[in-house]
Amino acid sequence: KVYKRRWLxxxxxxVYSFINGYQWIHLSIIGNIIERYYNESLPxxxxxxxxxxxxxxxxxxxxxxxxIIPGIWLLNKYGLKVNILLGAVINALGAWIKCxxxxxxxxxxxxxxxxxxxxxxxxxxxxxxxLSAVWxxxxxxxTATAIGVFGNQ
Length: 153
Hints:
The chain is 78% helix and 0% strand. The protein contains six helices and no strands. Helix 1 packs across helix 3, helix 1 packs antiparallel against helix 5 and helix 3 packs across helix 4 (107-124). The protein is elongated. The two termini are 30 Å apart. 29% of the residues are buried. The mean pLDDT is 92. The chain crosses the membrane at residues 7-33, 53-75, 82-103, 109-131. One of its GO terms (molecular function) is heme transmembrane transporter activity. Its main location: membrane. It is a multi-pass membrane protein.
């Protein structure tokens, strides 16, 4: 049986996925501003300074690879609700840590916060097919999965 609220669930997931995607990329697109602002807490030479800033986005990919298997295992074992809540808490914690790191001498806190948000990505990216399978009928699976994936793009 399918429920009318399935589209609301998909919409909420897409917003959740968008927020995680935003956490991933929002700092690297303003790398020059980040470099000027956090100047005193970044490495002194230009190459390492830029590499450190680039790791804000790259860390998502590096953390995703080892955590996707445990993320899918947790999803299979505990279901969508537990994993969405766990991922949302981890993402919020990462965002708060980044807020604490707003002082120019606290770039390390921004990076740690980014790592927490990256951990959440292992939960988010694997959700769309599971969400579609649980909430949608056979004729809607591909549409629902595509909409779920689109939230993070």
